[in-house]
């Protein structure tokens, strides 16, 4: 999986990296048990600071997406992905609320929002990049 970072984006680089890795897992381009590059190698490949990669990896570890082993390095959680629970649903609603609010303010209706959500989900499931 090729990770592309937008240095001009308002989204912090560590969040872009975290999101791209999660998308890679969701699209099955990265499988449970697959190794990820070391902090040093990924930072060098992307031309970013090692602390930025480390921060992304620590968040992924905290959320249960990866394991960090001294001997094996960074590995996608071989036991599977974190499951949906009440706290995740709360977080999901919290993150969606401002996006949906802005979409309504811009004149989008419910059907359009659903169409875009389905389109994104289909792209991820097919392993494609966003359009």
From TrEMBL:
UniProt domain HTH gntR-type: residue ranges: 11-79
InterPro entries, per the entry? Tscrpt_reg_HTH_GntR (IPR000524), WH-like_DNA-bd_sf (IPR036388), WH_DNA-bd_sf (IPR036390)
> What keywords are annotated for this sequence in UniProt?
DNA-binding, Transcription, Transcription regulation
Which positions, given as ranges, span the membrane?
Answer: none
Query: Short name of one Pfam family for this protein?
Result: GntR
Q: Which PANTHER family match?
A: GNTR-FAMILY TRANSCRIPTIONAL REGULATOR, HTH-TYPE TRANSCRIPTIONAL REPRESSOR YTRA
What is the name listed in the Swiss-Prot or TrEMBL entry for this protein? GntR family transcriptional regulator
**Species name:** Pallidibacillus thermolactis
